[in-house]
Amino acid sequence: MERADTRPLLDGAPFVWGVGIESSTLPHLDVDQFEWTQHNRFWRDDLRRVVEELGLRHLRYAIPWHYVEPEPGRFDWTIADERLGLCSELGIAPLLDVMHFGTPRWLRQAVGDPRFPEALERLTTALVERYGSIVRTWCPFNEPLVTSLFSGDFGFWPPHGRRWRGYMPVLARVAIATSRAIAAIRRSDPGATIVVCDAADTFQTSDETLRSECALRNLRRFLLLDLVGGRVDAQHSLHEWITGHGFTELDLEWLRLHPQAPDVIGLDYYAHSDWQLERGPKGMSQRRASAPAGLRGVARAYHERYGLPMIVSETSIEGKPVAREGWLAQIVRDIRRLREEHVPLVGLVWWPLFDHLDWDGALTHRIGKLHEVGLFKLARRPDGVLQRIRTPLATTFAELAQRGDEAVGELDRTRLAVPTEALEEMAAPLPAPRLRESAERPELGEVSGAAAAPLVAAAPAVRPPRAAAAYGVVVFSHLRWGFVWQRPQQLLSRFAKEHPVLFVEEPVFDLPDGQTPRVELHRVMPNVTVACPHGPIAWSRSPGLPADLRRLTQEAIERSHPDGELAAPVLWYYSPLAASWSLGWFEHRAVVYDCMDELSQFAGAPAQLREHEQRLLQHADVVFAGGYELWTKKRDVHENAHFFGCGVEFEHFAQAGDPATPIPPDIDFMQRPIVGWFGVVDERVDHHLVAEMARLRPDWSFAMIGPIVKIDPNLLSHAPNVFWMGGRDYSNLPNYCRAFDVCFMSFALNAATEFINPTKALEYLATGRPCVSTPVKDVVRQYADVMDIAGTPEALVACIERALTAPDEERIRRGIERARAAGWEGIVAQMQELVAGAVGRRARSGPARIEPLPDALFAYAPTPGS
Predict the structure, then answer these.
(1) End-to-end alpha carbon distance in the chain
(2) Alpha-carbon span 702 to 773, nearest angstrom
(3) If pLDDT is split at 50, 70 and 90, which confidence band does 414 have?
(4) Which is nearest to 577 in space by CA: 626, 541, 615?
(5) How far apart are CA 635 and CA 637, in angstroms?
(6) For the chain, which terminus, N or C, has the lower number of CB atoms within 10 Å?
(7) Binning pLDDT at 50, 70 and 90, where does residue 434 land?
(8) Burial of 204 (0-12, 13-18, 19+ CB in 10 A)
(9) Which H or E run includes 778?
């Protein structure tokens, strides 16, 4: 088979779309991802999957060092010959790591061993000479910064050094080894492309006392490339720091006399690569940045320093499927913008092809935790096999790759040459930061609350030109983002693939008396930031509360998106009460009201809610209704009201039908059959009905999963076979549904349920379980043909008995197909079209004047609902 491009990252070649296979091995710690993920068992299928299922030709890969050189100077090419030979047959162009993570045990101190640089050079020479006809792109040493920190500072990996005194000797060995490996590649194959891939972390702070520490960390990410390039001398910003902690002048002199540089810089950039430093009661700590520099800011910083082409050599995110889809969309969007700005970003590698294990402990423990980050999900089968299951993200990535340069935009390569004077400026030393003692550095993983002061960004923000169709979304919600994953999260996480979202929650009155109110920001997923105002309890009665809420919202807008992406946003309301203090005060492009419930009929609804909703409906450009009955009511008062019921993440809930899906132990003990519910337990749940059904069938178990709100748990109806289990994470709901024999919607028939359209209906249908419900209007209207509906305990018990003894397989099949066709993506696409139309109409007609309400009319009351 014809080989792929010989120099795929340079010489005007098309944009590289690739994938990697996690290949970390630490023999000293008995770590081997190839064994853990069963790649050594299924490597042929895995390599074929790259080509046959994804249509890709570029694979980032490694042959673990101890496989190839079990003893010093004795090479065993069996495994490498097989795997790289198959790559050649399949037409795969490997980007091969000479060393990913881990050395053979015969290097007793691993990367800190005095023999390590010479040994890596020997391995590199042998690999390039043997496989130079197959491999044209080489990474001599994967993530030298991470290796140096984990081995020499944090003490995780051998030689288990600690603090800067342990770090510097390891860093010296790593830098010299990288330099010698690059030189070996150039000697053995002058035409090869060399990529140095490293962690592209970036730091920011709002604390003046941490500015120097932040500057140090942002300079440290460049240190390896500066050392290998022979650029570190007495004038370098970090010279005093590294030599003061043990990096010898002799090693620096050797590196200056043997300068090397890659052809391409590999940026290993993840969702967790942006950090914020803060100081708390226990000293300095770090958390995820609420206003990340993003790939765009990081790549520009590297380009301004080195002027070299770059590739995103690793990226992914763990979490819900929609978070991974959103992250990929954001990365591709950033790459397009970088290329438009003539920054040479020439490729993207999703890491990894399939999930990996136990990386949350830096590979220091073995508990078998699967991290869902791959294009293919690993699923444990009863026989122990880790099955590779294609995810929707794999399809998205393959479609992007098929579009090639079109998906990321053409790169004007005539603009890539860097003038000599610019290179000289890049090589000039940066101002030396005021260094703080290493004891103040946070331990890995420490987290503290957000600061309120403006952030000191790691890289200067670049304000892009704003397209007319581009807009950000500021959401005012009575539902908290982290409460239950439901309609707002499903919709907005998908809007965030194209539009930045700021999700403003209702205030929390949890500060001590006398403290100044503040807003805390949390980046909860790609392109979604949650803003939560905090203040003392007296703040809830302050006449200045509405003005403070506006001030904190504006602060959140500016802090979360300092590049201006939230300038004149779309204002999106779930809470009509929030409109009382915000509507008319903020510049905006359009107003959206997503009415998911008739909140005025919920328990505890304040008297002024109806009045504020009427005002919101008067000024909204478009109204979405979450239920059909609700829509028939809203369309009478708004000409641009649209019914958008619930969607479903079908693949997620369909896991309940997979025999390999494990059943959690806190439900597996229950006597069968199990009649199951999940959802919020509030006044909409008829717990008396459940108790009566449990009395009629004492041999059945009733599993009620969900948080209990607005109801005293002690007042719930209890029985020996009724289990009020509390909330469970959305990601685990299919596991619980796997235990259900029948899915049950036990809604009360009252004012709070008159207009509801339950999200769980489609989620239940997707599980493939028989479904039974009480006669809620929207359920009767939409689902009477695919589920049994009854209104009394006796009739419901009879329905469940029929479902248990003689399930209607045809009805279940229709329910599955109904759910399969009702994805959230289709709903969001239609909503986006309607919002874009509203934005366009506002742009043509000019901003409409909305008269704000006087603050004197404002009286704070929490919005009801769940």
Answers:
(1) 59
(2) 14
(3) low
(4) 615
(5) 5
(6) N
(7) very low
(8) buried
(9) helix 777-783
Q: Is the distance from CB of 785 to CB of 813 less than 8 angstroms?
A: no
Contact 394, 19 (CB under 8 A): no
Query: Among residues 439, 442, 566, which one has the least CA distance to residue 165?
Result: 439
pLDDT at 19 over 50: yes
Q: Which residues of 596-632 are buried (b: 16+ CB within 10 A; e: fewer)?
A: bbbbbbbeebbebbeebbebbbebbbbbbbbbbbbbe
DSSP string over 286-331 = EEE-SS--HHHHHHHHHHHHH---EEEEE----S-HHHHHHHHHHH
- Does the pLDDT of residue 455 top 90, yes or no? no
Q: How distant, in Å, are the alpha carbons of 15, 178, 600, 682, 709 from that of 864?
A: 51, 60, 8, 11, 11
Question: Based on the number of CB atoms within 10 Å of its own CB, is 137 exposed (0-12), middle (13-18) or buried (19 or more)?
Answer: buried
Return the pLDDT at 469. Answer: 62
Of the candidates 284, 318, 315, 223, which has an alpha carbon nearest to the alpha carbon of residue 444? 284
* CA 768/CA 733 separation, integer angstroms: 14
Cα–Cα distance, 39 to 16 (Å, whole number) = 24
What value does the CA radius of gyration of the chain take, rounded to a whole number of Å? 29
Query: What six digits make up the tokens of 572?
Result: 């999106």
CA distances from 639 to 510, 532, 589, 621, 828 (A): 41, 33, 19, 9, 20
Higher pLDDT, 429 or 613: 613
The secondary structure of 9-28, three-state, reads CCCCCCCEEEEECCCCEEHH
- Report residue 382 as tokens: 């009863």
Q: If we measure between CA atoms, which residue out of 53, 31, 866 comes closest to residue 484?
A: 866
Token pair of 744, please?
């049950």
Give the residue carrying structure tokens 């929609």. Answer: 322
Segment 65-85 mean pLDDT: 97
Q: Tens digit of pLDDT for each residue in 120-151?
A: 999 999 999 999 999 999 999 999 999 999 99
Provide the 10 A C-beta neighbour count for residue 420: 8
Beta carbons of 782 and 822 less than 8 angstroms apart: no
Burial 812-830 (b: 16+ CB within 10 A, else e): beebbebbeebbbeebbee
Q: pLDDT value at position 361?
A: 81
Name the DSSP class of 624. E
Q: Which residues contact 745 (CB under 8 A, 6 or more apart)?
A: 677, 758, 760, 761, 764, 771, 772, 773, 774, 776, 779
- Number of Cβ within 10 Å of residue 402's Cβ equals 13
Does residue 422 surpass a pLDDT of 70? no
360: left (phi over 0), alpha (psi -120 to 50) or beta: alpha
Indicate the burial class of 645 (C-beta count within 10 angstroms; 0-12, 13-18, 19 or more).
Answer: buried
Residues with Cβ within 8 Å of residue 244, at least 6 apart in sequence: none
pLDDT value at residue 58: 97
**Dihedral sign of CA atoms 37, 41, 45, 47 in order:** positive
Token readout for 42 is 């299924």
The answer to whether the Cα torsion of 87, 89, 92, 96 is positive or negative is positive
Residue 843 and residue 489: Cα distance in Å, rounded?
A: 28
Of 199, 185, 315, 370, residue with least CA distance to 262? 185
H helices present in 479-593, as ranges: 487-495, 545-560, 576-582
Residue 35 has pLDDT above 80, yes or no: yes
